Amino acid sequence: QVVIMRDHQHENVVEMYNSYLVGDELWVVMEFLEGGALTDIVTHTRMSEEQIAAVCRSVLRALAVLHAQGVIHRDIKSDSILLTHDGRV
Hints:
4 strands; PAK3-like; two-stranded antiparallel ribbon; transferase; protein serine/threonine kinase activity; ATP binding; nucleotide-binding
């Protein structure tokens, strides 16, 4: 996922600013999305069909860009889908 963020800029892909190897840990400095992960939202809120469609549309846009560049994201899950405070995915 770090390589995807680094190498593929798109409005629906989190922007990565830098990464550091500290000992055996990888530290990543990336765009802060204050809305949190989709997991947190769906466990505390019932989403409308329109909201679900908007999330799906944004995720599919990002995947289409990645697929067009030969990248397959193999770990799509609600923990990996982040939102801004105003709901941008």
